[in-house]
Design goal:
By secondary structure, this protein is an alpha/beta fold. It is 40% helix and 15% strand. The protein is built from 20 helices and 15 strands. β7 (181-185), α9 and β8 form a beta-alpha-beta unit.
Length: 446
Amino acid sequence: MSKRRSVLALVAGTLSSSILLTGCLGNPPSRTGSASSSPIALNTQAASQLDTKSINLGFVPILEAAPLVVGVEKGFFAKHGLDVKLSKQASWSAARDNVVLGSAGGGIDGGQWQLPMPQMISEGALTNGKKVPMVVLAMLMSQGNGIAAANTVKDGNLSYDLKKSSPGFFQKFNQKEGRKFRAAYTFPKANQDIWIRYWLAAGGVNPNKDVELLTVPAPETLQGMKNGTMEAFSTGDPWPSRISRDNVGYLAATTAQIWKAHPEEYLAVRSDWVDKHPKAAVALLKGLIEAQMWLDKAENKDEAATILSSRKWYNVPLPVLQEALKGQYRIGPNGTPSTDPKMGPLYWNSDRGVISYPYKSLTLWFLVESLRWKFYPGTVDNIQEAQAINDRVTRDDLWLQAAKELGLPAKDIPTSPSRGKEVFFDGTIYDPTNPQAYLDSLKIKN
């Protein structure tokens, strides 16, 4: 019962932190100490050409938000005449509530999102039926996420390929403990929930039957793992790396091991803001692209870690961020070193091309996975509905305009909204021209 009470206490803390930030819908959050705008003076000439000079964006302190923070701190947004005000969100539910409010109501215009949150906010599936149309404008990062496991399950030797490393472990655990293995993520029915479900299912473990799934905000992962409220956690770095570094648990798998150069979190903004301020939207993307290019350079990783580690932004020890940004991991219960930067966070380039561009083939995948698990019945019930929603919400025209205005080389400007076939570690193939075949091929699903 004590462990049950600790889970309830953690959930209660999560709810209270969300309430403290946002109140209920219709009550604007206090921005005191939470909003930051560019410390660098705006380029007044560039600003004079825009339809607005500012935007309010939300972020959660994980590596996906780094381009937004760097864009502010290094002046990339200011260079293009835009004052980007960033507000740290206590949780993803707080971000959702704040984007419903919009900046006019004391909330935010958009920001960093797990998918398919923008699509489902647009459809009202996450907002009690209130539709707030949004636009996905760019991918913020690839990889840089992981599944951490508690030291209490070191004997399970959990890895990215559970069939090879841990056959039968979950069934044995459940029998021994008299309860299900507990796996957590930061928000239900989105990225990190999808990653842990894919990982489990690929290993022959049914996430709906063989484990108990929990929702816990990213900043509470470390304490939650210490308290024994979960055996595994799926979230963005620096939290998996910090769990490993602090010897609270170990890094069982990275998402790069599951799917190299995979889609991760995205920049998405309310449609009404983009429609009213198309020039500012392009300026936002130009600053973002330059921040992503800067972040991807090896010589800038230490400076980026210093920026992010500050109390103002992530409030995380500098060494943790330095290692996470460089893709320096200790994987498995024995802490086997992994130092390949191509397996770490990618912000601009990858073996599959440019990261930043919002490929519709990739944003569609999250909706197909939503179909797999029947996340949003009545909203996404078949492939045709998923494709229609994806086409409405994902826009690449503004990204392409920003890339051309920046004078990017042709090799960095995609010519198709599809990245082609994708291959997962277990051999599963996702062909965006036939998503139904992918869905049919998955053995474990709702």
